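Section 5.1 Outputs to date
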Amino acid sequence: MRVILSVFFVLLFINGSFAFDIDAISIKLNAKYSIPIEYTEYVLSHARVVPKVKAFAFRVANAKEKVMPFDTFLPLFVNKKRIEEGYEFFQKHKSLLRRVYKVYGVDPCVIVAILSIETDLGRVKPSTNCLNALYSLALYARRKKYFLSELESYIVYTYRHKIDPFSVKGSITCAIGIPQFMPSNIDKYGVDFNGDGLNLDEIPDAVASVANFLKRHGWVKDGKVVELLGKCKTEKDIVVLTDSKGKRTCFKTYKNFWVLKGYNGTVNYALAAYELAKNICKLVKHQ
């Protein structure tokens, strides 16, 4: 039975207002992706605001990777424990990583580093209800349009893959699986590498999906990523960072650096992924 909903849910904020039009979303997804109107209306009518996500929405602009000096941020992810665990993961999945490299041409150590940073190589299991997280962010986040778009993508994703939309768990922003893909990226870049259906909680699919994401964003096979410069210059591809003591450090960047930055959106993330990958590969090459 079709759920009858009012056309507009309007929430007022101090800095303005935002109209959440469930009827319009349902019609849009039906016209664009053939998602039944009843499905979208039913899912959205059961979405709820999560207090912790609402609180997160107001502090998201101050995420650590954006505001921390790089010399404080990097040790969080480039340390002895992560390097050794990355090496162990590499050795355990060496055959898989080699096969993925042959297909996509992406440095296996970079893939391992990303999976380490994102979910500690799959050990971290995000537990936030994805539907409610995206619903909350679409209402309260500074980037409302972005999260509304991700909410729409989530509805399409769950319908296409016959997934219970109320049971999927993810990060506080609904990043899903070991590689932490946002819903809009799952069908665009996700790869069913083991042939049993796309599942980003499975290592073969997670590894191949990261590789595919990087390749599709312009990864240069065996190309350079970044170089530390002894002296700062003012050039197009130079990144200048100031550490916690006020000292400036300059890096010459290449195409692969900006591809890495595109995975998370920050220079700190790209540097951490590169440094962690470099240290994992050092262990691999010495064995």
